Amino acid sequence: MTFQSLLRKIRAPDLQGKVILILIVVIFPISILLGLAQSKVMAPVFYQEVRQLGLSFAQNLASQIESGRLLSKPDATLQIEDRIQRMVYSQPGILRVDVIAKRSRNSEPYYLASSVEDQETLTPVLREWGPEVNSRLETEDRVPVWSILHPLRTPSGDALVKVLVSLDLVSAFQAKIFRINIIAAILSTILLILILSFLLRRAIENERQLRLAQESNAVLSGKLQEIQQSLIQTEKLAVMGQLTASFAHEIGTPLNSVSGHVQLLRMNLEKLIEQESFQPVSDRIGIISGQIKRIEEIVKGFLATTKKPMAASRARVELSGLIRNVIALVQPSLQVSGIQYHEDFGNCSLLIEVVPIEIEQVLLNLVNNAIYSMKEKKAHSVEAGERSELRISLHAEGVGKFANLEIYDSGLGISDTNLKQIFKPFFTTKPNGEGHGLGLSICQEIIHSYGGEMAAESEFGSWTRIRVRLPLG
Length: 473
Fold this sequence. Notes:
Among the domains are: 12-166, Beta-Lactamase (2-Layer Sandwich), CATH 3.30.450.20; 312-471, Heat Shock Protein 90 (2-Layer Sandwich), CATH 3.30.565. The protein is 57% helix and 18% strand. The protein is built from 9 helices and 12 strands. A hairpin with an 8-residue loop joins strand 1 (94-101) and strand 2.
């Protein structure tokens, strides 16, 4: 096996590798944790066993001292220490043994005998002195020990046996159990790996064949989706062909008639009205003629809805010019509604390569939405003389790579709930008959088709701002 193949196997393990990883990552730590838990659970039992050992030692020593009446003999210290040494030799867990006595009940205690040399010169420290056997956990030189006090019955005064039993044996036994658990966990994990590796060979082969079948199914599914999309597109072309032919036939004749009458009206008015008074009328008639041409372009556009826009239909145009064309169309609505319009296009010329009629469609839809929102706010407002304002700003971004367009209105605003859905098809907040919920969806689709972005932000009851970002031509 080469180093590269080993790396690939580590990065993308097969079923056998996954099982081995699971055994190592899951079973081995669990075995270790169980061993630790076992040692923790057994620790109190071991502690009690050591305590019982110390109690038995203290009781045995006390019995020998009492039965032999060693306390009343002149060489009591030597005989008691001899007994202590012989008993400690047979019990390695005993850390220290002391026989402590008092000459009277109110006198200070002193070491009568000890397993440690030179203790008679020191005063022993006892926290508890009583007639009952007492045991408690203490620390002696940073080692946990059982401290056991066993009283002695003496005719001349009080005495007791103090035994310190080390718990090092418990710690050593726990460590031994832990090592045994680790070895058992390693051996069991290796045994499971060997058994499962043998049993999983056929399963691994089945998994490989299943993966190949899934890849084949994915390829076939992708081809099926392409065929379905092709069929849908074909049906769409057929239906749209019939609709556009019928639509063009029905609307073409009235449009030609209206266009002709507008031209005649212009000629007649030019003869009847003086030149100075005729200019405003001529401008209005020009707008009407331009809109008739726009309708004609839209009719022609229906014929191209079933195919992608051709590069030849695009043109490099100045975005500010398209905005001013749209504002000229809605100027009467702005004046009638008392809406103040402000624009900030800066000094730079921002050229974009688009189909102009599509961008004008987007701008007109956004501006009409803004006008509608401000009219609705004015209709429902209780404050007299509230100002309505439409602001359009335009500037370059990214060292001349993008054009940023912002359309702000002081209308009703959009709630947070509705703001998340405004670009969804057929979603509208307008009453029935006034909106179909397709305007913003179509606008976003057009902007995305040019590699741009479109977003909205709003404060309900106060304002709305639409941001459009288009790549420069």
